Amino acid sequence: MTDGFGAITWWGFSPVLDLQDGHDGHSSNVWQGNHKMEDGPLHILLVGAGDLRHVLWTISRKYRHKKRKVFFYIVESNLELYARDMLFLTIALEPQKRMGLQEKTELYLELYGNILIRKQSAEYIERMSNEFIKMVTDIDYLKKKLPVVELSELKFKERDFLDAIFKFWRNPAIDGVFEVSKYWDLRVRKLLGTRYDSRMNVYDWDYQMRLAQREADIINIHEYKSWRETGVAFEVREADYEIPNKTMASGLILTHEGEKHARRGYWGDILVSPYVALGIQCEDKDFFKKANKMFMKTASNIAEYNITAMLHEIAHQRVYYLPKEKEVKGPVEDQGPQITEITEESVAKSTQDVKEEEPKMNVEQLSKQVEKDVCDELEKTDLSERRPLEEEYEPIHVENVSITFLPLGTLLDMGKKSKYRNLFDVVYFSNSMVHLLKPELNPTFADKANVIVESARYMLELKLEQVKMFTEKVISIGKDAGCKSPDKCDPETANFINMRFERKKDD
């Protein structure tokens, strides 16, 4: 393998979308309150999205739209992606009593974009793998623990394969099981060839001449080069990132001297980065402020904010506000432990609360009492690495949402099945799987459907001329499948190619 994109899409190559936008007469970017009216159900098909970002983002913003049931149907090229989807959905639905908002955000980002993770994160994967094994082997247990997920469409051999993936995740052995840093370096050497010794200059050129030129310069050059070198995108806290992230292990059939060999390794992206999916767009425009013509924030900061906001909105169904230095906004339960400064005023206030039988407590004693109260409160709200492993997993309740994983390689056969006829209101294709947008599939489209195709804008190995050719090819494929050409689509700036399908009366 010589390309930098890899054979498996661990993350998408486009920013996150709310797939309900455009289906109730307004955009979620101009939210004006909850909508009490109900609409008919919305059925969304995602082909090759690579991660669960669009699904979770759409779920988190459901309350911004008219009330309706939303059904997601997911088709991927690898079962390892289904396993990761279940993992990230589980993290997103972690209840407050098991894991606080900040810890959920850190865990999500770490497992999403790092080939190396912390010890407590590895322990979380191992512990939850036991749950996943029960889920894929017992449908009743799945309904209890992750009721929004539907696995019944998968073939028995696919569920058996998922079972094997989770057993691999559960294995606590490290040495020799998945030497991901070694695999990463081998991929980089293969990609760069004779340029390997000057790879830092190559990373710099890729950033300056490709990534930054495509309006992704909010990605800091240092974080991008660090990710290219180490495979670690999000260092959310000062910690040791040294344990292989086994959720990024996948198999690939390689041909050597005429013989085929199965190899487990890291076969994902080593060129674009996970920053594009989560860290280049943001609802809070303060993240794009500049000082001395340089961004004050990085893509990592934006990704952390986006995931925090998403997880908060899933849990509480209301907008997340970033706490300010002087004025804290947002629910107290999501702000973490509140530290009280010990001053004469706080001591005086505490004096009023002291019981009458302790009237002679002096200032020093009061200071110690206030400090003890703060420490006690911190202990109550402690979100240490042990808590997620001690409490039983009971997911946050999500209303009117269903996520169905479909069998691999059966997309074009869906047009022959009556249960999928005229079903999908929104159809999303990744740029790597748009070749499956064929006339055989359009019987599954609703009479009026939105067809969204990820552009090749951030496929950095492609020149802009090739990106334009890709867009033209996608529009041609869409026409053959009965879609109308988009009114406006600048290949150099469009993240998605939006087309409209309308069934003719005689079809």
Q: Which short descriptors sum up this protein?
A:
507 residues; alpha/beta; eight-stranded mixed beta sheet; two-stranded parallel ribbon; 15 helices; 16 strands; globular
What would your notes on this structure say?
- 36% of the residues lie in helices and 14% in strands.
- The chain is of the alpha/beta class.
- A hairpin with a 2-residue loop joins strand 8 (250-256) and strand 9 (259-265).
- The longest helix has 19 residues, at 119-137.
- It is globular.
- Mean pLDDT is 86; it is low at 25-37, 326-361 and 377-386.
Task: Walk me through the topology.
Blueprint: E1 35-38, E2 42-47, H1 53-60, E3 66-67, E4 70-75, H2 79-92, H3 101-113, E5 116-117, H4 119-137, H5 139-145, E6 149-150, H6 156-170, H7 180-192, H8 199-211, H9 221-230, E7 243-244, E8 250-256, E9 259-265, H10 275-278, E10 290-291, E11 294-295, H11 299-316, H12 344-353, H13 363-380, H14 387-390, E12 401-405, E13 424-429, E14 445-454, H15 464-480, E15 483-484, E16 496-502
Parallel strand pairs: 1-3, 2-4, 2-13, 4-12, 6-12, 13-14
Antiparallel strand pairs: 5-7, 8-9, 10-11, 14-16, 15-16
Helix pairs in contact: 1-11, 2-6, 3-11, 4-5, 4-6, 8-9, 12-13
Molecular shape: globular
Mean pLDDT: 86
Query: What share of the residues does DSSP label as strand, in percent?
Result: 5-15%
**Measured distance between first and last alpha carbons:** 44 Å
Biggest beta sheet summary: 8 strands, mixed
| Quantity of strands, as a count | 16
Query: Helix count, per DSSP?
Result: 15
Radius of gyration: 25 Å
Helix content: 25-40%
| Oligomerization status of the protein chains | single chain
Q: Structural class, from secondary structure content?
A: alpha/beta
Low-confidence blocks of residues = 25-37, 326-361, 377-386
- The order of strands across the largest sheet is 6-12-4-2-13-14-16-15
